[in-house]
Amino acid sequence: MPSQPAHVATAWPLTFQPLAFPALYARAGFSGFPSPAQDYEQRTLDLNTRLIKNPTQTFYLTATGDSMEGWGIFHNDLLVVDRSLEPRLGHILVAMFDGEVLIKRYALYQGRPHLCSAHPLYPPLALANTDCQLWGVVRAVIHEYVS
User: Which helix or strand (DSSP H or E) is residue 47 part of?
Assistant: First the structure.
């Protein structure tokens, strides 16, 4: 059985700068009264506001490895992790498991809590009688198509 690869590479601090949000509209001509929606044409997209609900309890991690590809987390994806969320079945967690940082889905396997990957080469990890420390719940995954 292959050993579990490390699944976390880097933690990055939060920054609070809004990003320019391109206006996605076109006009064919003007007639009648101006639209009230024109007040909102020049706006910004702030990913911190969108993805971070608890700034003091949130951090970023870079995922490594292939064990979570089936659930949409790929090598070098950026994870937004929230330490304030209470983990529930189905959540993707970042945890220190027997001295190794892992990204896994919290699930029941054979009726007992386990940390599960989406890759068949990595078996579910039983949580009973192990040294497991929760670091947080993954709130969002940022996947870049062009680097």
Answer: helix 47-51
Answer whether 133's CB lies under 8 Å from 99's CB. no
Q: In angstroms, what is the C-alpha Rg of the chain?
A: 20
Distance CA 93, CA 135 (A): 7
What would the two tokens of residue 43 be? 């706006």
Cα distance between residue 2 and residue 121, in whole Å: 7
What is the pLDDT at residue 4?
46
Cβ–Cβ < 8 Å for 18, 45 = yes
Q: Are 126 and 61 in contact (CB under 8 A)?
A: no
Give catalytic residues, as residue numbers.
Answer: 67, 104
pTM, rounded to two decimals: 0.70
